[in-house]
Amino acid sequence: MLVLDTIYKADQGSRYKAMDLSKAKAAPSRIDSAVHAAHIADSLNLIKVTQILDKHGWLGPQDVGIDGSNALFLVIQHANLATQQKYLPMIRTAVKDGKTLSSNLALLEDRVNMREGKTQAYGSQLFRNRSTGKMCFYPIADPDHVDERRKAMGLQPIAEYAKYFSLTWDVEEYKKNLPEIEKAIKENKLTTKNFRSF
User: Residues of 81-101 as b/e, b for ≥16 C-beta within 10 angstroms?
Assistant: First the structure.
């Protein structure tokens, strides 16, 4: 389905542009403009994707190619909480049917849990602590066994994942810092609006 390939390019292209500007330390107004453009693309993509899902159900790589199937997941992953909650059962079924990766399900479950104010299971979601400016893992349930859960869902060890954010994973340090992380979430008044996906 050609439309999904186009959606995939729009979703990823808008994000890479914003990330490239951020890495290049461009003016904040240029970065904000790029992020705003990504959110507009998200809104337009969501209309098309929900129409496809409501008509055809989840389409796997065998149906629409890898990029097309990834487009479905990415648009839902970047959608609002209500949309994510609506399509989460469909994605669970798609994993059972071999139409999407279990890692995609893990990412969406973590994001929904985070937005609902619950702990995440797989450690895929981070936030920036406004008072320190540092990236932090959103509270993880039973962090001692997070890698076992990650492995079961096809995710890399959390220590490797942490490197993408220039972080070092130390479970004991994380548990020690958890009260501070939870306090930062409350103080920063992180809500579902603040967690707009990017």
Answer: bebbeebbebbbebbeeebbb
- pTM assigned to the model: 0.86
What is the reported pLDDT for 189?
62
Out of 7-21, 63-77, 152-166, which region has the weakest mean confidence (pLDDT)? 7-21
Unique residue bearing structure tokens 């702990």: 119
Distance CA 92, CA 121 (A): 15
Within 10 angstroms of residue 174's Cβ, the number of other Cβ atoms is 21
Q: Give the amino acid at 98.
A: G
CA dihedral 157, 162, 167, 171 (to 10 degrees): -40
Query: Distance between CA 75 and CA 8 in Å, rounded?
Result: 8
